[in-house]
Specification:
The structure holds 2 protein chains of 2 kinds. Helix content of chain A is 82%, strand content 0%. In chain A, helix 1 packs antiparallel against helix 4, helix 2 packs antiparallel against helix 3 and helix 5 runs antiparallel to helix 6. Chain B folds into 2 domains: 122 residues, no CATH class; 308 residues, no CATH class. In chain B, the strands form 2 sheets. Chain B has a 3-stranded antiparallel sheet. Chain B has a two-stranded antiparallel ribbon with strand order 1-2. In chain B, helix 12 runs antiparallel to helix 13. Classes of the chains: A mainly alpha, B mainly alpha. At the A-B interface, helix 6 and helix 7 of A face helix 5 and helix 6 of B.
């Protein structure tokens, strides 16, 4: 039963992380990020008690809320979403598929290194790291960069939960997640400042 | 009372309070004075020793426990704290002259406290978490909410954040290597993870593209502060790995890797600096070369390398402070810091121009300046182990010196009969004058800092013994 839940979470994360690459509407990006944190919670539960694992999802949702609230306060015109053309979508699809394929291949080897964390945990963690890095590699927009970094960190936190159960580390990682969201929000406002002035 | 409260928690609280103050002079004076007091306490009040003051008995405990883990500042780290807070005082006093005190002093206190926490946390590999928090605080320090952030800031955030997972995972893998030292695959994996983590943190070639961008886009003084504190503490944190793991320390491959990476940084930093046509980018590449010198110090016989590593710290702090303050003042008087725009600027900002040249020469190991004694010792140590490596180091130094002479030519190249119209304020002239005197004093009397540096190698249990 636990394993089924874990694999369901992995499938959910494939959908959310790929969705973050394709979807350009910021509302959907925030929703997908929040769902991604839910999947992360399920995978973290494999090694951590529910109390500690819920720190991850609460911090994640708070971070998503910070980014969402900041973005909602900015004008639509001032930071118009760039749309992906059909070629762009095809490229993103191909890149995401390549990442998924590579992750599927390396999961058994990494799982052995990660003290047999469990295939779903290793796979989910690596998937988020890979997709997050891909995200960082193909965008320079502040919101996307913040989401990309948060995705990479989520993947790392899933893997790290299998080997480290310290309360201090959990607390500091939660602070870093929130800090990243706050920095993202700060940069979003700053990036928008000049455009708003000129409107 | 305990040491972490005094040197970590108090500065963070103070930084938060100072965020609400908007007066440049007040912030600069208060911040600098408090940093001096913290440095003096670190140097003169022993940790874990009861002191009798009249009928009172005071004792500064070394540790504090937070959420099951400890922050420990052992008595041997007192001199390091004195050096860090002493250098911080220098930056804070100069903040008024650069008109950056409102951002530098409050956030600077918090960043320094978090970097100190990264050295103090037990287990020590959690340091990466504190360094990441310091990086996050650096973003509002670098950028204004009223101006769009440049590519440099975004790249800085990405590269430095990516370091944290690598270091944390490397720390966990290293514990495994300790348990089974014969496992070569695990050893290679942990070394690779560690290497990647430090490559991101220290901005090792080719991951340093954010440094020149950052200086072009932001106040050179703020960037200079980060280029001082981040690599300095990171190098000490990295040396902590060498101290703790004997297999790392005794690995000839790691020593060679450190040497090659250090040389790569020195040579590319020097060569790129020589060919730049932007005064800010020259400082960026100069600081890259400085990091290279620190890595080289870790690659020579550590009984010699560790004292050299600590000797590099004050020269780097003072050199970068003078260099970045000079550039900030020059930037106020020109549209951009490109050679074309900065031509003849010496007649408008004579002391800033002189400060920039002296600091560049110091970075390039020019005799009688602060950078000379440490680089000379390093060069000598390196030449004993590899003449080829010493020659490559000379190439890097030649590049830095070339950049200094090119800059001098550009800023002094004014049209004939152009009048001298200095526009520097009294504070700016005072700070630059004191800074330049300091650079000469450190070069002429390097033994003056021996008082601070003599006990620093004791913070390591194995290195340099």
């Amino acid at each position: 039963m636990e394993l089924t839940f874990a694999w369901t979470a992995v499938i959910l994360m494939v959908i959310t992380s790929a969705g973050l690459l394709f979807v350009r509407d910021w509302r959907w990006n925030i929703i997908l990020l929040a769902i991604q944190y839910l999947g992360m919670f399920v995978l973290t539960l494999q090694h951590w008690p529910i109390g500690m694992a819920s720190v991850k999802v609460v911090a994640g949702w708070m971070s998503a809320a910070i980014l969402g609230m900041t973005r909602s306060g900015l004008s639509e015109d001032a930071s118009a979403e760039e749309s992906l053309g059909p070629r762009g979508r095809l490229f993103h699809l191909f890149a995401a598929a390549t990442v998924v394929l590579i992750i599927a291949v390396v999961t058994p080897a990494v799982d052995t290194i990660m003290a047999d964390a469990g295939f779903p945990v290793t796979n989910g963690g690596l998937l988020l790291i890979g997709m997050g890095l891909l995200h960082l590699g193909i965008t320079a927009r502040i919101l996307q960069v913040a989401i990309g970094l948060m995705t990479v960190l989520s993947g790392f936190e899933i893997l790290y939960s299998a080997v480290e159960g310290s309360v201090l580390v959990a607390a500091l990682l939660a602070v870093i997640n929130l800090g990243l969201a706050l920095v993202g929000a700060y940069l979003l406002i700053a990036a928008n400042a000049q455009k708003t002035e000129s409107l | 009372m305990n040491a972490p409260t005094l040197w970590i928690i108090f500065p963070i609280g103070l930084g938060v309070l100072l965020l609400f103050i908007n007066n440049q002079r007040f912030l600069s004076l208060v911040g600098g004075s408090i940093a001096v007091i913290l440095a003096a306490i670190a140097q003169f009040v022993p940790i874990e020793v009861a002191l009798r003051v009249g009928s009172l008995s005071l004792r500064l405990d070394s540790g504090i426990t937070i959420l099951g883990r400890s922050l420990v500042i052992p008595p041997t780290e007192g001199s390091l704290l004195a050096l860090i807070y002493g250098a911080a005082a220098l930056w804070f006093f100069g903040a008024e002259a650069s008109r950056t005190a409102t951002r530098l002093v409050p956030l600077g206190f918090m960043i320094i406290a978090l970097m100190v926490a990264s050295i103090a946390v037990q287990p020590f590999l959690y340091a990466a978490l504190f360094i990441e928090m310091a990086i996050l605080l650096a973003i509002p320090m670098l950028t204004s909410i009223y101006r769009p952030p440049g590519r440099g800031v975004v790249r800085f955030l990405i590269y430095q954040t990516l370091a944290m997972p690598f270091i944390l995972l490397a720390g966990w893998l290293l514990a495994g290597v300790e348990a089974s030292p014969g496992d070569l695959a695990l050893t290679a994996q942990s070394a690779a993870m560690l290497g990647m983590g430090f490559a991101f943190l220290l901005a090792i070639f080719p991951l340093y593209s954010w440094i020149p961008l950052l200086i072009e886009e932001n106040s050179p003084y703020l960037v200079g502060f980060l280029l001082w504190i981040l690599p300095t503490i990171t190098i000490i944190f990295g040396a902590g790995f060498l101290d703790r793991y004997s297999w790392l320390r005794s690995s000839p491959q790691l020593i060679l890797a450190l040497r090659y990476v250090g040389l790569l940084m020195v040579v590319t930093g020097g060569a790129f600096a020589a060919f730049q046509r932007h005064l800010g980018r020259i400082m960026a590449y100069g600081s890259i070369a400085e990091t290279g010198f620190s890595l080289l110090a870790l690659s020579v016989d550590l009984r010699l390398g560790i004292p050299i590593l600590f000797l590099l710290i004050p020269a780097r702090a003072l050199g970068l402070a003078v260099w970045s303050l000079s550039l900030t003042i020059i930037k106020e008087n020109v549209e951009t810091m490109r050679f074309g725009e900065a031509r003849g600027i010496l007649r408008v900002t004579p002391l800033a121009g002189a400060g920039m040249i002296v600091a560049t020469l110091s970075a390039g190991a020019f005799p009688l300046l602060a950078g000379f004694p440490s680089r000379l010792a390093l060069w000598e140590g390196l030449s004993r182990e590899s003449v080829g490596a010493a020659l490559w180091m000379a190439v890097g130094i030649a590049g830095l010196l070339t950049s200094a002479f090119r800059s001098l030519a550009v800023i002094s190249m004014a049209d004939e009969y152009t009048a001298w119209t200095p526009r520097e304020s009294f504070t700016q002239m005072t700070m630059l004058g004191l800074g330049m005197i300091g650079l000469f004093l450190l070069g002429l009397f390097p033994q003056a800092v021996h008082f601070f540096l003599a006990n620093l190698p004791l913070m390591f249990e194995q290195l340099g013994r």
